[in-house]
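anyone seen this seq b4? input:
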Amino acid sequence: MKIISLVFNSYFDAFRIVREAGLRKFYFLPGIISLFLFGMFIYLGDYLSLNLTNSLESFFKLGEYSSILYIFIKILVWLCTIFFYYLVYKSLLLVIISPILGYISERVETYLTGKEFDFKMSDNIKFLLRGIDIGLRSFFKQMIGTCIVMLLGFIFPINLSIPLLIFIIQGYFTGFSFMDYTLERYNLSSRESLQFLRKQRVYAALCGGIFTFLFFIPLIGIFIAPLITCVATTKITLELLSDYKISD
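predicted toks r here
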């Protein structure tokens, strides 16, 4: 109950922090980048799914089957392609906007604690390199976890919970990506950050899950999700770090 309360209160409070800390302008830049990437990946997904469907149609002679089966296969191929590209898209997005979100996280900590940071342009490179490192690790682990869940889908009753399991895996690593902006400022190495994640996995999964829900709100989700999640997870991570010790 304490975990749920902290996460949801932080997300609700994030809108106030954005307003009072003067962060409203950051709705737009990550949102525009998100919109561009999203459109590009939707186009690529549609293009590749069309080519894949045509190849399957030619190889299996799908035109000889009923029109309903043909339409079903086309929809299934399109959904699978879009799903795969969503996984790539999300990881790529977080890598590209990591310098922006890192700066936002600093501003939030300054607002909450009064601690000042000397943000230099060189920090952008540091955030980008760390974002690539964490993003690639998370992406490959997400893909491995997702593939395992899909393979287990042939086992009843596990197949009934596949969407939920995939959602949890995605939320887990997405939440950690946002938490890492704060962990980096406290000089936690990638290994130590992963150690932190294992201890706070429920927080990470909830934060990432809420990000996904916000992200898919029509029209506005793509603009508010990165900023609000960054603000909320910064507040949550600061509270968790206050009584966290790195073990040897």
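The radius of gyration is 20 Å. The chain has a mean pLDDT of 79. kinda curious what u guys think
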